[in-house]
Structure formats: structure tokens, C-alpha cells
């Protein structure tokens, strides 16, 4: 049980575990950490959450994650992710996606964001149909910011800084 508690609190460095739990093998520690990640993944696949609701703002965005061979040199793969963050509760979701088209993203928005939510996004064309009548005209309130002009819309104050920050932090952690 101690292992699970330490992992959930991010006290799971190999050095920490070797000192406090007396597990000496690096392979055993790596296997245990992979098991914990798989367990969490399985839970969220079985019980997906929907975030936000009336009067909440969720920022959405998609991001490319690339890898370089041996951490330098040429790119060897690009993965796309889509996610959203509630500004107030800080709840969120991130999913791997194969396509960034409207059909894919709207389906994920409906799956992970409750009706009545205010959605802030950039002006990516796939988001244009969020307020489309086929999806219910009052399902969401959608506001956009044009990043080619500014990061925060000077008139409406719409921005996506929180989800952009999530991508930055996650990519920094992946590099370490």
C-alpha cells in the first residue's frame, strides 16, 4: 500500500523507493510504475469523466507531440493529443487522436464536456461546428481567440493560456 501512496504523491523516484521501500531492482521499480500507470489508464477508459457545466469555462486545444531519435536529431514520430481544462476546478482531459477533423473533435467535446459549458478555443476550423444546429444550438457557448493576432482577445478577453500551459508543462516533463 505504501508504494501506491508514494506513487500517487509523485514520490516515486528510483532513489526514493530504494531508500524507503527497500526494493533494490531498477527493473522491478520500472515494472511497478508501469503497472500503476496502466491501472489508472484502465480506470479512466472504463469510467470516463465529463467536466464543467453551466457557467464554467473550458479551454480546448490540440497539440502535436514529437520525438527525436536518441533525444536529438531527426524526428521519428508525431502524436496528436486533444484536451480541455476547466478554469475554475482545474479538472481536465487529454486523449490521443488520429485525426484533427471536426467529426473527431466534436465527438470528443460531447464525450468530455457537459452541455451548458462555455468553451474557449483558437480559430482552428474543426471547432467551427461547435455551435452548429445539428449538435444543438444551445449545447455550448463558444468563443474564440485568433492567435495570429494576439494571445488574449483584447475585446472579449478570451484566451487559451491554461491549456497551452498544460501542453508546455507536460512536454517539459516528457523530456526529463
From TrEMBL:
<dbReference type="InterPro" id="IPR053164">
    <property type="entry name" value="IS1016-like_transposase"/>
</dbReference>
<feature type="domain" description="ISXO2-like transposase">
    <location>
        <begin position="50"/>
        <end position="176"/>
    </location>
</feature>
<protein>
    <recommendedName>
        <fullName>ISXO2-like transposase domain-containing protein</fullName>
    </recommendedName>
</protein>
<dbReference type="InterPro" id="IPR024445">
    <property type="entry name" value="Tnp_ISXO2-like"/>
</dbReference>
<dbReference type="Pfam" id="PF12762">
    <property type="entry name" value="DDE_Tnp_IS1595"/>
</dbReference>
Amino acid at each position: 500500500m505504501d508504494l501506491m501512496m508514494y506513487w500517487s504523491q509523485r514520490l516515486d523516484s528510483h532513489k526514493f523507493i530504494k531508500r524507503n521501500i527497500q526494493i533494490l531492482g531498477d527493473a522491478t521499480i520500472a515494472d511497478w510504475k508501469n503497472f500503476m500507470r496502466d491501472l489508472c489508464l484502465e480506470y479512466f477508459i472504463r469510467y470516463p469523466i465529463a467536466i464543467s457545466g453551466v457557467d464554467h469555462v473550458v479551454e480546448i486545444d490540440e497539440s502535436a507531440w514529437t520525438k527525436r531519435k536518441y533525444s536529438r536529431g531527426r524526428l521519428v514520430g508525431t502524436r496528436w493529443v486533444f484536451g480541455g481544462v476547466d478554469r475554475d476546478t482545474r479538472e481536465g482531459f487529454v486523449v490521443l487522436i488520429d485525426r484533427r477533423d471536426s467529426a473527431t473533435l466534436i465527438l470528443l467535446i460531447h464525450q468530455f464536456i457537459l452541455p451548458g459549458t462555455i468553451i474557449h478555443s483558437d480559430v482552428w476550423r474543426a471547432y467551427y461546428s461547435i455551435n452548429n444546429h445539428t449538435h444543438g444550438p444551445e449545447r455550448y457557448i463558444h468563443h474564440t481567440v485568433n492567435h495570429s493576432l494576439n494571445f488574449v482577445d483584447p475585446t472579449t478577453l478570451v484566451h487559451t493560456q491554461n491549456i497551452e500551459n498544460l501542453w508546455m508543462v507536460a512536454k517539459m516533463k516528457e523530456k526529463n
